[in-house]
Amino acid sequence: IAGITQAPTSQILAAGRRMTLRCTQDMRHNAMYWYRQDLGLGLRLIHYSNTAGTTGKGEVPDGYSVSRANTDDFPLTLASAVPSQTSVYFCASSVDSGGADTQYFGPGTRLTVL
Amino acid sequence: QKEVEQDPGPLSVPEGAIVSLNCTYSNSAFQYFMWYRQYSRKGPELLMYTYSSGNKEDGRFTAQVDKSSKYISLFIRDSQPSDSATYLCAMTLLYAGGTSYGKLTFGQGTILTVHP
User: Fold this and answer.
1) E strands of chain A, at which residues?
2) I need a surface site. Which of A42, A111, B100, B116 has the fewest CB within 10 A?
3) A with B: how many residue pairs have Cβ under 8 Å apart?
4) What radius of gyration, in Å, describes the C-alpha atoms of chain B?
């Protein structure tokens, strides 16, 4: 089944721990994105990658890092988690990064940092 | 102040009603405008996108953009219980080279419930 998968589905994490959220797409899309969704704030872009081997910072990149070693995978790492990183994280992809390119979203990872 | 403002609702309407969802924005450089629908505990999915001022219709959905007022709307005709979801407006601008880098700016989302 074509689409985006994210893992884990949910996670409770102690503050200070390192955590990697996984994202894989099988649509051969060039561009991939990580968003966080918080009540009252909508979706905010954390990092993006327009093609394998390149990444860029979004609106709220602090405390997060990404890598794009190949087309399909775009992991998001929290080096030392803090409670303010409690959120729902969505990975998305699009064919390219033009203005009209549709972004397809994964099912999300619910992360709680205590 | 956020670049994109959207009334979070919640909005509750009876089946068959016409629903109007709205967003205002402050950055006149935004060029592409989108509406996403998000069901509970799911990822958002694109409903419609528009590029220019005016109306775009797709079945029961009409997207309207007024760039002079920096205002966009989504109308749902003959609303159904299956339309119950959170609706998010999103927009992006183009940088040099014609790319947006995929940088969407979202509104806060409006929670809609259509009751039978």
Assistant:
1) 4-7, 10-13, 19-25, 31-38, 42-49, 56-57, 64-66, 76-78, 87-94, 104-105, 109-113
2) B116
3) 72
4) 14
Residue A48 to residue B101, Cβ atoms within 8 A: yes
For residue A40, give the nearest of B8, B103, B104 by CB distance.
Answer: B8
Do residues A103 and B46 lie in contact, with contact meaning Cβ atoms separated by under 8 Å?
A: yes
Summarize pLDDT for A60-93 with one digit per residue, the tens: 999 999 999 999 999 999 999 999 999 999 999 9
The pair of three-digit structure tokens given for residue B28, joined into one six-digit string: 């006149």
CB contact under 8 Å between B43 and A107, yes or no, is yes
Of B31, B45, B49, the CB nearest to A105: B45
